[in-house]
Amino acid sequence: MDRKAETVGYIMDHLEAKIVNPTTGELLPLGELGEIMIRGYCVMLEYWNDRAKTEECITQSGWYKTGDIGSLDAYSYLRIEGRIKDMIIRGGENIYPAEIEQFLHTHPKVVGVQDARMGEEVCACIKLADGEECTPEEIKAYCKGQISHFKIPRYVLFVTSYPLTITGKIKKNDLRDEAEKQLGLNKGK
């Protein structure tokens, strides 16, 4: 039952799926997070009159790069964790905000901000429950020993609200820009 509740389901008949390293394209083992790629008769062949877009999204062997981050289990159940464009690259390590969001549960908004040495750093933008107080040190201490050291947010900002789209999704680019502005990291922009 958990498998059905925690995944988007299993891969359909007559459809192939694989998980690859988004940087190298290397096939990853079951359970590992990476880019979801699919191939089959139900997958489009190309973008109409747009060769560049086709080459960007579809490999020579017909694999469609979904842009989603996820994992497959041994029963072909697919779990989607986020989008590649939201991935934080810190010193060569790929960090998926959704993974950190899931760990923090009550502090779910995490973005990457630029960093001269590491490329990007993890920044948690947290909205506390009414009447609650917290410090950045408490958040970092909560993470220690629970998630990999390189995934622990270097910066912790507390916000009163999040920039939202008309459909209620968080505008991560706006959140990232505001975090970089508050931290004085947007000098190159």
Automatic annotation (TrEMBL):
GO terms for biological process: fatty acid metabolic process. One of its GO terms (molecular function) is medium-chain fatty acid-CoA ligase activity. Residues 99-169 form the AMP-binding enzyme C-terminal domain. The keyword Ligase applies. It catalyses: a medium-chain fatty acid + ATP + CoA = a medium-chain fatty acyl-CoA + AMP + diphosphate; octanoate + ATP + CoA = octanoyl-CoA + AMP + diphosphate. Keywords: Ligase. Pfam families: AMP-binding (PF00501), AMP-binding_C (PF13193). InterPro entries: AMP-bd_C, AMP-bd_C_sf, AMP-dep_synth/lig_dom, ANL_N_sf. The keyword Ligase applies. Residues 3-48 form the AMP-dependent synthetase/ligase domain. Acyl-CoA synthases catalyze the initial reaction in fatty acid metabolism, by forming a thioester with CoA. Has some preference toward medium-chain substrates. Plays a role in adipocyte differentiation. Belongs to the ATP-dependent AMP-binding enzyme family. This is Medium-chain acyl-CoA ligase ACSF2, mitochondrial.
